[in-house]
Write a structure and sequence with these properties.
CATH architecture of the largest domain: 3-Layer(aba) Sandwich
Distance between the termini: 22 Å
Shape: elongated
Radius of gyration: 21 Å
CATH superfamily of the largest domain: HUPs
Helix content: 40-55%
Structural class: alpha/beta
Number of helices: 8
Length: about 300
Protein backbone atom coordinates (compact mmCIF):
# COMPACT_ATOMS: atom_id res chain seq x y z
CA UNK A 1 0.00 0.00 0.00
CA UNK A 2 1.51 3.31 -1.07
CA UNK A 3 0.27 6.49 0.59
CA UNK A 4 1.10 9.70 -1.24
CA UNK A 5 1.17 11.68 2.00
CA UNK A 6 4.00 9.47 3.25
CA UNK A 7 6.13 9.34 0.12
CA UNK A 8 9.13 10.60 2.10
CA UNK A 9 9.68 9.68 5.74
CA UNK A 10 12.46 11.39 7.66
CA UNK A 11 14.18 10.24 10.84
CA UNK A 12 16.01 12.66 13.12
CA UNK A 13 19.20 10.92 14.26
CA UNK A 14 21.73 12.06 16.85
CA UNK A 15 23.95 8.95 17.20
CA UNK A 16 22.49 8.25 20.65
CA UNK A 17 21.01 4.99 21.91
CA UNK A 18 17.57 6.38 21.09
CA UNK A 19 18.31 6.10 17.36
CA UNK A 20 17.81 2.34 17.42
CA UNK A 21 14.20 2.53 18.62
CA UNK A 22 13.36 5.45 16.35
CA UNK A 23 14.75 3.64 13.31
CA UNK A 24 12.90 0.46 14.18
CA UNK A 25 9.63 2.40 14.35
CA UNK A 26 10.48 4.18 11.09
CA UNK A 27 11.24 0.85 9.44
CA UNK A 28 7.91 -0.55 10.65
CA UNK A 29 6.05 2.36 9.03
CA UNK A 30 8.19 2.21 5.89
CA UNK A 31 7.36 -1.46 5.35
CA UNK A 32 3.67 -0.62 5.76
CA UNK A 33 3.54 2.45 3.52
CA UNK A 34 6.47 1.81 1.13
CA UNK A 35 7.67 5.43 0.81
CA UNK A 36 9.95 6.31 -2.08
CA UNK A 37 12.60 7.47 0.41
CA UNK A 38 13.47 6.86 4.04
CA UNK A 39 15.80 9.72 4.92
CA UNK A 40 18.08 9.91 7.94
CA UNK A 41 18.75 13.50 9.06
CA UNK A 42 21.71 14.34 11.27
CA UNK A 43 22.85 17.76 12.39
CA UNK A 44 26.33 18.51 13.67
CA UNK A 45 25.58 21.37 16.08
CA UNK A 46 27.67 24.47 15.46
CA UNK A 47 27.06 27.58 17.56
CA UNK A 48 28.25 31.12 16.92
CA UNK A 49 30.15 32.81 19.75
CA UNK A 50 30.56 36.46 19.04
CA UNK A 51 30.88 37.47 15.40
CA UNK A 52 33.70 35.28 14.17
CA UNK A 53 34.26 32.26 16.42
CA UNK A 54 32.29 29.03 15.93
CA UNK A 55 32.21 26.00 18.22
CA UNK A 56 31.60 22.52 16.90
CA UNK A 57 30.11 20.79 19.96
CA UNK A 58 31.07 17.35 18.80
CA UNK A 59 34.30 18.08 20.60
CA UNK A 60 34.59 21.81 21.30
CA UNK A 61 38.06 22.09 22.75
CA UNK A 62 40.16 19.83 20.49
CA UNK A 63 40.45 19.26 16.76
CA UNK A 64 39.59 15.58 17.25
CA UNK A 65 35.93 15.79 16.30
CA UNK A 66 34.95 12.89 14.01
CA UNK A 67 35.01 13.65 10.29
CA UNK A 68 31.68 13.88 8.51
CA UNK A 69 32.59 10.79 6.50
CA UNK A 70 32.82 8.71 9.65
CA UNK A 71 29.47 10.08 10.87
CA UNK A 72 27.91 9.18 7.52
CA UNK A 73 29.24 5.62 7.67
CA UNK A 74 27.99 5.19 11.23
CA UNK A 75 24.51 6.46 10.34
CA UNK A 76 24.35 4.27 7.23
CA UNK A 77 25.18 1.24 9.35
CA UNK A 78 22.54 2.22 11.92
CA UNK A 79 19.82 2.70 9.31
CA UNK A 80 20.48 -0.57 7.55
CA UNK A 81 20.66 -2.57 10.77
CA UNK A 82 17.62 -1.16 12.56
CA UNK A 83 15.12 -0.03 9.92
CA UNK A 84 15.36 -3.18 7.79
CA UNK A 85 14.08 -1.21 4.82
CA UNK A 86 15.17 -1.30 1.18
CA UNK A 87 18.72 0.05 1.09
CA UNK A 88 18.18 1.60 -2.34
CA UNK A 89 15.41 3.76 -0.87
CA UNK A 90 17.43 4.95 2.11
CA UNK A 91 19.29 8.27 2.12
CA UNK A 92 21.33 10.21 4.67
CA UNK A 93 21.71 13.96 4.92
CA UNK A 94 24.21 15.59 7.27
CA UNK A 95 24.40 19.32 7.84
CA UNK A 96 26.23 21.58 10.26
CA UNK A 97 24.62 24.48 12.07
CA UNK A 98 22.02 25.42 14.67
CA UNK A 99 19.87 22.32 15.20
CA UNK A 100 16.33 23.71 14.98
CA UNK A 101 16.93 26.01 12.06
CA UNK A 102 18.87 23.41 10.09
CA UNK A 103 16.40 20.60 10.79
CA UNK A 104 13.51 22.73 9.62
CA UNK A 105 15.44 23.57 6.45
CA UNK A 106 16.31 19.90 5.82
CA UNK A 107 12.67 18.85 6.21
CA UNK A 108 11.53 21.47 3.70
CA UNK A 109 14.31 20.86 1.17
CA UNK A 110 13.68 17.09 1.15
CA UNK A 111 9.88 17.45 0.97
CA UNK A 112 9.50 15.21 4.01
CA UNK A 113 5.87 14.49 4.92
CA UNK A 114 6.56 12.75 8.24
CA UNK A 115 9.49 13.25 10.60
CA UNK A 116 10.13 10.71 13.35
CA UNK A 117 11.84 11.94 16.48
CA UNK A 118 12.99 9.83 19.41
CA UNK A 119 11.35 11.27 22.51
CA UNK A 120 13.64 10.98 25.51
CA UNK A 121 12.62 11.12 29.14
CA UNK A 122 11.43 14.47 30.44
CA UNK A 123 14.41 14.64 32.78
CA UNK A 124 16.72 14.89 29.77
CA UNK A 125 15.12 18.15 28.73
CA UNK A 126 13.44 16.60 25.68
CA UNK A 127 10.13 18.26 26.56
CA UNK A 128 11.51 21.60 25.41
CA UNK A 129 12.85 19.95 22.26
CA UNK A 130 9.47 18.40 21.53
CA UNK A 131 7.61 21.67 21.99
CA UNK A 132 10.00 23.60 19.77
CA UNK A 133 9.79 20.99 17.04
CA UNK A 134 6.00 20.90 17.25
CA UNK A 135 5.88 24.66 16.78
CA UNK A 136 8.36 25.04 13.95
CA UNK A 137 8.62 21.89 11.81
CA UNK A 138 6.32 22.01 8.78
CA UNK A 139 5.85 18.25 8.30
CA UNK A 140 3.84 15.78 10.33
CA UNK A 141 5.73 14.77 13.47
CA UNK A 142 5.80 11.40 15.18
CA UNK A 143 7.39 11.34 18.62
CA UNK A 144 8.60 7.85 19.57
CA UNK A 145 9.21 7.33 23.31
CA UNK A 146 9.59 3.53 23.12
CA UNK A 147 8.88 0.41 21.06
CA UNK A 148 6.46 -1.07 23.59
CA UNK A 149 3.50 -0.29 21.31
CA UNK A 150 4.56 -2.18 18.19
CA UNK A 151 2.84 -3.51 16.20
CA UNK A 152 0.14 -0.85 16.14
CA UNK A 153 -3.36 -2.21 16.74
CA UNK A 154 -5.23 0.27 18.95
CA UNK A 155 -5.42 3.81 17.60
CA UNK A 156 -6.61 6.77 19.66
CA UNK A 157 -7.65 9.91 17.80
CA UNK A 158 -8.05 13.11 19.82
CA UNK A 159 -10.84 15.06 18.15
CA UNK A 160 -12.16 18.59 18.64
CA UNK A 161 -14.39 18.51 15.51
CA UNK A 162 -12.13 20.93 13.60
CA UNK A 163 -10.79 20.56 10.05
CA UNK A 164 -7.36 19.72 11.49
CA UNK A 165 -8.92 16.92 13.52
CA UNK A 166 -10.39 15.56 10.29
CA UNK A 167 -6.95 15.64 8.66
CA UNK A 168 -5.63 13.66 11.63
CA UNK A 169 -8.42 11.12 11.14
CA UNK A 170 -7.48 10.60 7.49
CA UNK A 171 -3.91 9.64 8.41
CA UNK A 172 -5.10 7.48 11.32
CA UNK A 173 -7.45 5.69 8.93
CA UNK A 174 -4.60 5.10 6.48
CA UNK A 175 -2.55 3.55 9.26
CA UNK A 176 -5.51 1.40 10.34
CA UNK A 177 -5.93 0.08 6.79
CA UNK A 178 -2.19 -0.50 6.39
CA UNK A 179 -2.00 -2.53 9.61
CA UNK A 180 -5.26 -4.33 8.75
CA UNK A 181 -6.33 -4.11 12.35
CA UNK A 182 -10.00 -5.03 12.90
CA UNK A 183 -10.27 -2.60 15.83
CA UNK A 184 -12.12 0.65 15.27
CA UNK A 185 -10.30 3.94 15.66
CA UNK A 186 -11.29 5.38 19.03
CA UNK A 187 -12.13 9.05 18.67
CA UNK A 188 -11.88 10.87 22.00
CA UNK A 189 -13.41 14.26 22.66
CA UNK A 190 -12.78 15.84 26.05
CA UNK A 191 -15.22 18.56 27.12
CA UNK A 192 -13.33 21.37 28.78
CA UNK A 193 -15.37 22.39 31.83
CA UNK A 194 -15.60 26.19 32.15
CA UNK A 195 -14.78 27.76 35.52
CA UNK A 196 -17.66 28.28 37.94
CA UNK A 197 -16.94 32.00 38.14
CA UNK A 198 -17.89 32.38 34.49
CA UNK A 199 -21.57 31.75 35.32
CA UNK A 200 -21.96 33.51 38.65
CA UNK A 201 -24.49 31.22 40.30
CA UNK A 202 -24.79 27.50 40.96
CA UNK A 203 -28.04 26.90 39.05
CA UNK A 204 -26.77 28.49 35.85
CA UNK A 205 -23.48 26.62 36.16
CA UNK A 206 -25.13 23.23 36.64
CA UNK A 207 -27.43 23.86 33.67
CA UNK A 208 -24.41 24.70 31.53
CA UNK A 209 -22.65 21.50 32.60
CA UNK A 210 -25.69 19.40 31.70
CA UNK A 211 -25.92 21.11 28.31
CA UNK A 212 -22.29 20.60 27.30
CA UNK A 213 -22.50 16.83 26.51
CA UNK A 214 -25.69 17.38 24.49
CA UNK A 215 -24.00 20.10 22.44
CA UNK A 216 -20.88 17.95 21.99
CA UNK A 217 -22.89 15.00 20.68
CA UNK A 218 -24.71 17.31 18.27
CA UNK A 219 -21.39 18.69 17.00
CA UNK A 220 -20.02 15.18 16.72
CA UNK A 221 -22.93 14.02 14.57
CA UNK A 222 -22.54 17.02 12.28
CA UNK A 223 -18.78 16.51 12.04
CA UNK A 224 -19.14 12.83 11.07
CA UNK A 225 -21.83 13.59 8.50
CA UNK A 226 -19.94 16.51 6.97
CA UNK A 227 -16.77 14.45 6.53
CA UNK A 228 -18.57 11.21 5.59
CA UNK A 229 -16.92 9.21 8.37
CA UNK A 230 -18.67 5.88 8.75
CA UNK A 231 -19.86 4.53 12.08
CA UNK A 232 -18.16 1.20 11.37
CA UNK A 233 -14.78 2.95 11.06
CA UNK A 234 -14.68 4.87 14.34
CA UNK A 235 -16.08 4.84 17.83
CA UNK A 236 -16.44 8.32 19.28
CA UNK A 237 -16.25 8.72 23.04
CA UNK A 238 -17.19 12.00 24.72
CA UNK A 239 -16.06 12.67 28.29
CA UNK A 240 -16.10 15.61 30.64
CA UNK A 241 -12.67 16.76 31.73
CA UNK A 242 -11.82 15.21 35.08
CA UNK A 243 -9.55 17.97 36.31
CA UNK A 244 -9.54 20.73 33.69
CA UNK A 245 -6.39 19.22 32.20
CA UNK A 246 -7.33 17.96 28.74
CA UNK A 247 -3.88 16.55 27.94
CA UNK A 248 -3.86 14.50 31.13
CA UNK A 249 -7.39 13.26 30.37
CA UNK A 250 -6.34 12.14 26.88
CA UNK A 251 -3.31 10.29 28.25
CA UNK A 252 -5.41 8.67 30.99
CA UNK A 253 -7.89 7.33 28.44
CA UNK A 254 -5.01 6.24 26.19
CA UNK A 255 -3.51 4.19 29.00
CA UNK A 256 -6.88 2.67 29.94
CA UNK A 257 -7.54 1.49 26.39
CA UNK A 258 -3.88 0.49 25.97
CA UNK A 259 -3.55 2.68 22.90
CA UNK A 260 -0.57 1.99 20.66
CA UNK A 261 -0.53 5.48 19.14
CA UNK A 262 -2.26 8.86 19.60
CA UNK A 263 -3.21 11.09 16.66
CA UNK A 264 -3.79 14.81 17.14
CA UNK A 265 -4.35 17.67 14.71
CA UNK A 266 -1.71 20.38 14.74
CA UNK A 267 -4.18 23.21 15.25
CA UNK A 268 -7.72 23.25 16.51
CA UNK A 269 -10.34 25.97 16.85
CA UNK A 270 -8.70 29.38 17.21
CA UNK A 271 -11.43 30.32 19.67
CA UNK A 272 -10.04 27.69 22.01
CA UNK A 273 -6.56 29.25 21.93
CA UNK A 274 -5.11 26.80 19.42
CA UNK A 275 -6.77 23.89 21.18
CA UNK A 276 -4.18 21.34 20.14
CA UNK A 277 -0.89 22.95 19.19
CA UNK A 278 -1.29 25.72 21.73
CA UNK A 279 -1.63 23.92 25.02
CA UNK A 280 -2.98 20.41 24.65
CA UNK A 281 -0.48 18.91 22.22
CA UNK A 282 2.47 20.48 24.00
CA UNK A 283 1.16 19.21 27.34
CA UNK A 284 0.72 15.72 25.90
CA UNK A 285 4.33 15.74 24.71
CA UNK A 286 5.55 17.02 28.08
CA UNK A 287 3.56 14.52 30.17
CA UNK A 288 3.78 11.45 27.94
CA UNK A 289 6.64 8.97 28.21
CA UNK A 290 5.23 5.75 26.75
CA UNK A 291 2.84 6.21 23.81
CA UNK A 292 3.87 7.44 20.34
CA UNK A 293 2.18 10.72 19.40
CA UNK A 294 1.57 11.61 15.73
CA UNK A 295 0.93 15.32 15.10
CA UNK A 296 -0.81 15.82 11.75
CA UNK A 297 -0.40 19.11 9.89
Amino acid sequence: MVVEHLDRIGVALDLSEKDEETLQFAGYLARLFQPAELIGLHIVPVWDIGDFFKVDIRHPFTPAAPALGKIYDSLAEEMAAHSKYDREKMKIHIEEGRPYQVLRQMVEENNIQLLLVGQKKASSGSGITSRRLARHISSDLLFVPSLDRLPVKRILWAVDFSDHAYHAYLIADQLKKATRTPDKIIGLHIIDIPPYQQYGERGTYEYALSSLPVAARRRCAGFLEKNQIRDNAVQIEIHMSAGRNIAEDILTHARKMEADIIFVGAVGHSGLENYFLGSVTESILAQNSHIPVWIVR
